[in-house]
Design goal:
single chain, alpha/beta, Maf protein, five-stranded mixed β-sheet, globular
Length: 172
């Protein structure tokens, strides 16, 4: 496991422990890599609830409740889809924070509108009353080969979790 990923996961874990938060992941293009990095961290069972690997559209629908109309209208790699993935991950877990990722890691599958390297992210929080807040979503385009794009996506996802934890700890 590379040092940058180990360091990010440890920081996420420490922040979760400090604030009593738990995480769930919903991953597509990263294939569970975020969950792997998190579970590499000793003690992660106290702050990581579960991970969903939803590589196909059917898995996104069956496991997370993503509407097929969302995928058909906006595509599997869209802010709308990852938003539903993040909310669905929270609704199918006991976690308080979720992360969702869907992207085009290549080398094929890109288009002019969504080139290879396009990755969509969503981070979502369940408030103290149990209500799932609207996800914070972001689209990035990373350069590199398949492995490089996926690694950059994992780093960005973990960095986004740190920011989300910072916001969640300030919830009423």
């Amino acid at each position: 496991m590379d040092a940058e990923l180990v360091e990010l996961s440890a920081a996420v874990g420490e922040a979760c422990r400090r604030h009593g938060l738990t995480i769930v992941t919903a991953e597509s293009c990263t294939g569970g890599w975020v969950a792997q990095v998190i579970t590499h961290t000793a003690g992660s069972s106290s702050w990581f609830d579960r991970g969903f690997v939803t590589y196909t559209n059917e898995a996104k629908r069956d496991m997370l409740g993503v509407r097929m109309n969302t995928i058909e209208t906006h595509g599997a790699v869209s802010l709308e889809t990852v938003s539903e993935m993040a909310a669905g991950a929270l609704n199918n877990s006991k976690a308080l924070i979720s992360l969702a990722i869907s992207g085009i890691a290549g080398p094929t599958g890109g288009s002019p509108e969504k080139p290879v390297g396009t990755v969509c992210f969503a981070w979502c929080v369940r408030d103290t009353a149990g209500v799932v807040e609207l996800p914070s979503c972001e689209r990035r385009v990373f350069a590199g080969d398949r492995e490089g794009i996926r690694r950059q996506a994992v780093i960005h996802a973990l960095s986004g979790l740190l920011q989300t934890i910072g916001l969640a700890r300030n919830m009423p």
